[in-house]
Amino acid sequence: MAGGAGQGPWRPLALLAVLVVALYATMFGTGNTKPHLAIDLAGGTSAVFTASPAPGTTTIPAGAMGTAVTIMSERVNAFGVSEAQVSQQGSNTIQVEIPGHNSQTLVDQVGRMALLYFRPVLQSAAASAMASTSPSPSASGSAAPSASSSAKASSSAAPKASASASAKASGQAEKLTTLKDAASSSASPAASASSTAKASASATPSASSSASTAASASESKAAAVFATLNCADKTTANAAAKAAADALPTDYVATCDKDNTAKYLLGPSEVAGTDVKSASATPVMAGQTVTSNWQINLNFDAKGTKDFATATQQLYQQYSSQTGSGQFAIVLDGVVESAPAVNQGAITGGQAQITGTFSQTDADNLATVLNYGALPLRFDISQVSIVSPTLGGHELSGGLLAGAVGLGLVFLYVIFYYRGLASIAISSLIVAALLTYSSAVLLGPLMGFTLSLAGVAGLIVAIGITADSFVVFFERLRDEVREGRTLRTAVEHGWHRARRTIIASDFVSFLASAVLYLMSIGSVKGFAFTLGLTTVIDIVVVFLFTKPLITLAARSEFFGGGHKWSGLDPERLGGTRTTFRAPASAGGRRMTIAERRKAAEQAAADANGVQSDETKRVDV
User: Fold this and answer.
1) CA dihedral in degrees (266, 270, 274, 276; nearest 10)?
2) Are residues 117 and 57 in the same domain?
3) Orientation angle between helical segments 149-156 and 302-321, nearest 10 degrees
4) Helix 302-321 and helix 189-201: axis angle, to 10°?
5) Is 339 helix (H, G, I), strand (E, B) or coil?
6) Phi/psi class of residue 90: alpha, beta or left (left: φ > 0; alpha: ψ in -120 to 50)?
7) Domain co-membership, 72 together with 120
8) In the chain, what's the furthest Cα-to-Cα distance?
9) CA separation for the pair 518, 516 (Å, rounded)
């Protein structure tokens, strides 16, 4: 930035003006006019969870923490919370911030260990369908009843498999197909449950009378809940999901799917999620062509392979004979994530494929659920902060008041000490504030930045950093004037010497904030981020605004002539006053060729003088 001649000062000022206009146009164009506030300012609940290996294991599996973050995010979203943040902090810590909700119960639900089960589908219906008859008090019956209309509808939704299970190689992946749930019109839930229970009982040894009685009671209770369950009501659906999640693996449950569009009556779990070795989402291939559909590939461990073979054998018998739905539900935290049908024979090789009309997102989410079931973690609540909106508002007001007081004190100081130069300093601070505010607002939707009380502290500290930059420049400028240089010459000499100090100082501040951001967690990261952001903004303001503005001021009579209120009075500074000669263009007269040549020679002499001074310092 050349100071004093030509268009040098106007170019950086124009660039800065374009930048400010672009930022604020983006703000108002996107409707984002206020920064996102963190819990301590907006009110809400913040919790830190520390993960530990599941019982029977000693280490946290690779990738389990990332999957846990995904599951926790889904749990928070299930409460209807907007703008919640779930992020991993360190190797075994997850921080959850839920604005606008003040509840310890919510924290307990988010951090609860996820339980994944594969349960047989006894009956399914539309979300708000109600049974026309009351459920039977007991699921036991003397004869095997016919399948319910729901089961038949589910069975007929897909064609029978043409190949039997015995025709498949044991290691080959076998397919399951997801079916749309059909509503039950008049069949009794208990009757359907009894039908499937009978089919299952024929393939397994009879249990003791006490276990049978408990199972019957559990089945009757679940059937009664299913008959009246309305999944379209979120409160009722959440209550059913909680009851299903708290149930034992041997219990019967009634619950809803994740979209609250269907309800299910489910039998006891036959395979646990911990028996899934891996799950992955891949596109469906049609020959050598990749289609738009996706499938989920499952691999079970030894125990899971055995249990899944037994369960799918029974379900395939139901499907092929149309005596049951032939479906099993993948249930996480009491919610049905998917309910595929076993339509191509028993799956005995420990590998399976779940196919259907999956999008990539749906397939990835289901694979995540299955992987998380295979890699469960136990979370302990390390820290909980519940802040009311009133307290958050007081904290925000206090932080803004502290910033205003700090800014006011800086204004008073520069006015008292620098007099006329204070106008440039105050203008620089205002421009820095405009850039900082717009950046904080736009970084919210762009990268999830939220302004916390610690971040406000970083902004207050940044006032000192910005003030320090123009103090360095002003003092160097006054030293040059004190040595007898004209202001226009002093601006260039002082800038060449001051900018190195400014850059070095800001670099140290930015480096410190970057290290603090990378090494810290929680609110300290907010302080480090705002400190680093404002340090970068300080460089922008000094180079694109402060220096060009001083270059323009040096052309004026008030500053260039060393007025006693300008802050650059040579006599007051201990130097000798020189005669001010305004540039020719300032008086409306174009410079002659001789004057321009002389001005160029003077500029070259000034530059050589700066280099000579620097060389002398190096030699000394």
Assistant:
1) -100
2) no
3) 100
4) 120
5) coil
6) left
7) no
8) 119
9) 6
Same domain? 102 vs 118: no
118: Cβ–Cβ under 8 A, 6 or more apart, which residues?
269, 270, 271, 272, 273, 308, 311, 328, 329, 330, 331
Q: Are 551 and 1 in contact (CB under 8 A)?
A: yes
Query: How, if at all, do strands 174-178 and 351-358 pair?
Result: parallel
Pull the structure tokens for residue 111.
């951090």
End-to-end CA distance of the chain: 29
Q: 């809400």: which residue's tokens?
A: 44
Contact of 338 with 178, CB cutoff 8 Å: yes
Average pLDDT, the chain: 74
Whether residue 346 sits in one domain with residue 225: yes
- Per-residue pLDDT at 575: 60
Domain presence at residue 386: no
* Domain presence at residue 250: yes
Q: How many CA atoms within 13 Å lie on the side-chain side of 452?
A: 21
Question: What is the domain extent for residue 486?
Answer: 10-23+407-614
Mark whether 360 and 446 lie in a shared domain. Answer: no
- Residue 331's nearest CA partner among 235, 277, 383, 267 is 267
Among 56-65, 339-348, 359-368, 608-617, where is mean pLDDT lowest? Answer: 608-617
Q: What is the DSSP string of 7-22?
A: TTTHHHHHHHHHHHHH
CA–CA separation, 239 vs 231, rounded Å? Answer: 10
Does residue 431 share a domain with residue 366?
no
Whether 526 and 38 have beta carbons less than 8 Å apart is answered as yes
Q: Is residue 29 part of a domain?
A: no
How are beta strands 116-126 and 328-332 bridged, if at all?
antiparallel
Spacing of C-alpha 414 from chain mean position: 42
Task: Provide the 8-state DSSP code for 92.
Answer: S
Decide if 37 is inside a domain: no
- CATH number of the domain at 72, please: 3.30.70
pLDDT tens sequence across 390-441: 666 677 777 778 878 888 888 888 888 888 888 888 898 899 989 999 998 9
pTM: 0.52
Point out the least confidently predicted range of 173-177, 364-368, 542-546. 173-177
Ramachandran quadrant class, 260 (left: phi over 0; alpha: psi -120 to 50; beta: rest): left
Strands 378-387 and 335-338: unpaired
- What contacts 567, CB < 8 A, 6 or more positions away? 417, 418, 419, 420, 421, 422, 474, 478
- 557 with 497, same domain: the answer is yes
CATH assignment at residue 439:
1.20.1640
User: Tokens 């004037």, residue?
Assistant: 481
Alpha-helical (H) ranges within 144-233 are 149-156, 189-201, 209-228
Provide the pLDDT confidence category of residue 483 given band limits of 50, 70 and 90. Answer: confident
Q: How far apart are CA 93 and CA 131, in angstroms?
A: 46
307 and 208 share one domain: yes
Tokens of 326: 């032939």
**CB-based contacts of 439, cutoff 8 Å, min separation 6:** 23, 533, 537
Structure tokens given for 50 = 């520390």
